[in-house]
Amino acid sequence: QVQVAESGGGLAQVGDSLRLSCVASGRTRSTDSMAWFRQAPGEEREFVIGSFRSNGITYVADSVKGRFTIARDNAKKTLTLHMSALKPEDTGIYYCAVGTRTILSTLRQSSAYDVWGQGTQVTVSS
């Protein structure tokens, strides 16, 4: 059984940088998709950034393009989210997700992922 756990959230100021870590355990594969989603209060969970299983290419939401990057280490089963130039609208709970059967057309959909972490809170204040 695959499990994921996030860490590294917290309080930040506008313009700050934060790093979130995701560690997967269990029978994960280097070919699984891994992604970060976030959910702001009263909003639906949205795709932020992810690594697609078939080609390893990183896909990024327009709202964070140029500010957020990920680093994936298949040997350690980790996915690290590097966030910079943080804005108040980046506030939310950030979730790490693993997808074993994601296809490109559904990469940005939460329903395409099988395993989710508990989430870690990120709050950006102005």
Q: Keywords, please?
A:
126 residues; mainly beta; seven-stranded mixed β-sheet; four-stranded antiparallel β-sheet; 11 strands; globular
Structural class: mainly beta
Average of pLDDT: 93
Low-pLDDT parts are none
The overall strand count is 11
Beta-strand portion reads over 45%
Give the SSE order as H and E letters.
EEEEEEEEEEE
> Tell me, what's the shape?
globular
Count every helix, treating DSSP H or I runs of 4 or more residues as helices: 0
Explain the overall architecture.
This protein has 126 residues and is mainly β. It is built from no helices and eleven strands. It is globular and about 40 Å long.
Short description:
This protein is mostly beta strands. It has no helices and eleven strands.
What's the layout of helices and strands?
Blueprint: E1 3-7, E2 10-13, E3 18-25, E4 33-39, E5 46-51, E6 58-60, E7 68-73, E8 78-83, E9 92-99, E10 115-116, E11 120-125
Parallel strand pairs: 2-11
Antiparallel strand pairs: 1-3, 3-8, 4-5, 4-9, 5-6, 7-8, 9-10, 9-11
